[in-house]
Structure to design on (137 residues):
C-alpha cells in the first residue's frame, strides 16, 4: 500500500515539474522577444589587452581567435611585451600581415611598475587604449 502512495506522490511531483518546465519555456520565449527589441542598435567599441611573453606553442592561432570575433562593434587589439627581441613580437607582426583589416597594435615597453610583470605590461599598454570597454585576456 505504501508503495502505491509513493508512486502516486512521485507522479504528482513529476507532473508539477513538467508543468513548471513548460511554463518557464513559454515565459522565456516571450521575454526573449521583448529583450531583443530592447537591445541598443549600436554596440560599444572594445579594446582587448593581451600581455605576452615569448613565442609559446599555438600563439598565432590564439591571437588569431581575437581577430575572428563575431562582434559587430569595432575591436582594437593591443599586444604588449617588455622587450623588442621577444619572440611574441614576430608572431604579432605575422598576424598583422594576415589580418590587415583589424586594428592590431604592439606595445614594447620595458618599464616595470611593481613586482608583477604582467600588471606592468598592462599598465604600459594603457595609454594606447582607444575605447571605454576594455577586456584583458
Amino acid at each position: 500500500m505504501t508503495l502505491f502512495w509513493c508512486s502516486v506522490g512521485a507522479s504528482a511531483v513529476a507532473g508539477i515539474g513538467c508543468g513548471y518546465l513548460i511554463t518557464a519555456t513559454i515565459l522565456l520565449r516571450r521575454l526573449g522577444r521583448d529583450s531583443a527589441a530592447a537591445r541598443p542598435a549600436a554596440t560599444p567599441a572594445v579594446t582587448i589587452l593581451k600581455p605576452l611573453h615569448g613565442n609559446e606553442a599555438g600563439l598565432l592561432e590564439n591571437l588569431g581567435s581575437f581577430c575572428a570575433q563575431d562582434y559587430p562593434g569595432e575591436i582594437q587589439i593591443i599586444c604588449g611585451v617588455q622587450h623588442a627581441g621577444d619572440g611574441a613580437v614576430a608572431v604579432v607582426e605575422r598576424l598583422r600581415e594576415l589580418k590587415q583589416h583589424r586594428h592590431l597594435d604592439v606595445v614594447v615597453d620595458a618599464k616595470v611598475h611593481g613586482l608583477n610583470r604582467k600588471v606592468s605590461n598592462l599598465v604600459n599598454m594603457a595609454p594606447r587604449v582607444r575605447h571605454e570597454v576594455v577586456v584583458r585576456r
Summary: The radius of gyration is 25 Å. The chain has two domains: 1-39, 46-136. Helices lie at 2-38, 59-67, 87-98, 117-125. DSSP finds four helices and four strands in the chain.
